[in-house]
Design brief:
Aspartate Aminotransferase, domain 2, 4-stranded mixed sheet, 15% strand
Amino acid sequence: MPHSEGEVRMQQPSGAQPSAQPSGAQPSAQPSGAQPSAQPSGAQPSARPPAATRRSQELFARALRVLPGGVNSPVRAFKSVGGQPLFIERADGARIYDVDGLSYLDYVCSWGPAILGHNHPAIRQAVTDAAQNGLSFGAPTELEVRLADKITSFVPNLEMVRMVNSGTEAVISALRLARAYTGRQKLVKFAGCYHGHSDSMLVKAGSGALTSGVPDSLGVPAAVVADTCVATYNDLDSVAGLLQGREVAAVIVEPLAANMGVVLPNPGFLPGLRQLCDEYGTLLLFDEVICGFRLAKGGAQEYYGIQADLACYGKVIGGGLPVGAYGGRRQIMEMVAPAGPVYQAGTLSGNPIAMAAGLAQLQLLADGTVLAQIGQQASRLAAGLRQIVLDLGIKACVNQVGSLLSLFFGIEAAYDYDSVQQADTGLYARYFQEMLARGIYLAPSQFEAMFVSAAHSAADIDASLQAGSEVLQKMKGEGLL
C-alpha cells in the first residue's frame, strides 16, 4: 500500500476487464488555472472489446518477468477489480491515453498530484526551464527556499519544513522527530488510515483498540510495531483509552481519511484529538499527503480549523514529480539536523526539478479560486451519483469533501474501518469494469478515492453521470443490486 496508491488490505474478487474509448463532445468552460481536456468525453460512450488493449496485455506479460507482480506499486495491478492493467503512454487535461491509443476520462489523476489536470502547460514549462540548468546538484538551491516559503505562507502555523522525496519518507522522519521531541516511544494511529510503508505504520486493527500492533506485512518484526497502538477513526474514546497510562509521543491521523475510500471526520473528532493531545502532552501529527493543499489553500488544518503540531505533505506540492515534506512549529523543527540532533538526510531532497513543478502548481492554487471550482464540480458529481442510487433504490453511499469522493456499494454509511469493510468489493469490481468499458477510468479498488481535477469540465461530469447511470441500471437489471 504505497502512499501514492494506498489501499486497505482486504481480499477482493477478480473479474474480466473490457476497455473503451468514449465518443467526443464539445468542451465546456474550464475553471481558472485548468488545462482543458484534449478530448472531452461525450454523451454516448461506446465500448471497445478487450482485444483493443492488446499492447497493454503484451507489456504486462513482459513486466511480469522483470517486476514483482508486473508493477511498481500493488494497486496498479488491478488485482482488486480483475483483469489486466492498462499501460499509459501519455496524459493531457482530464484524459489519459493508453499504449493502444485508447482515451479514458481519468479520476485517478496520478493518485492526487494532477490537481490541475495532466500535463498542465505552466508546470511543464517550469520543469523544462529548470531542467535547462541541470537535473540535480546535491546542494542548496533558490527553488527549495521559494517552495518552502510558499508552503509556510499557505499554512500559517507551519513555521519550518524539510523537503524529502515521498510521503512515506515524510512520515518516517516526522515520527522520529516526534519521539525525539517528546522523549516518548509509543505512537497512536487509526485503523484504515495509511501512512506509507514504513515498518512501524504497517499495522492493522484487531477487535477494538489494540495496546500493541500486529504486523500487516511479512518482514515486519513484531518488536518494531509493539509501540504502535491502533485506535478507531471517529472514536475519541478509543483514543483516550490508549493515551491513558501510556507515554505516547504522537497521534498520527489522516484528518480526512482517503485510503479506505473517502471517510469524513465526524464533527468534533479532530477538535477532540487536539484536546486529548494537549491534555496528555502528545503531539498531533496530520498526514496531509493526500488532502494537503487540496481541501483548502492551507489544507486540512485550514479547512477544519485545527492546528497540528506536525504535518506531512506530498502529491500536490510536487506537481507530479516525486516529493514529500514534513513541517511544524519552529521549536520542534529546529531539532532536525543539522540544526539539532534528529538525523535525516536525502540525496535528492529538494531536487530542483521537483521544486520547480511544485512551486508552479502552488502558485496557480494560491488564491483558492481553482480549489473552490474543483470542489463544486466534485459536489455536482457526488450529488448526481447519490440521486442515481436513490432513484434505483440501491444500497450504497457516496462520501465527498472538496475534490475527493467515493462510492461504496452494499453499505448505507462509511465512517470508519469496520464500516467500510462491509462494502461489497465484488460489486465495485463489476462497476469499475463497466465504467472502464465506457471510457471512465476509476481507481482499481473500492478503497480508494476519486480525484476531480481542474481539467474536468461540466461535460465530463455529465458524461460520467450518464455512464454511471447506465452501469447501475444494467447491474440492477441483472439482479446484482
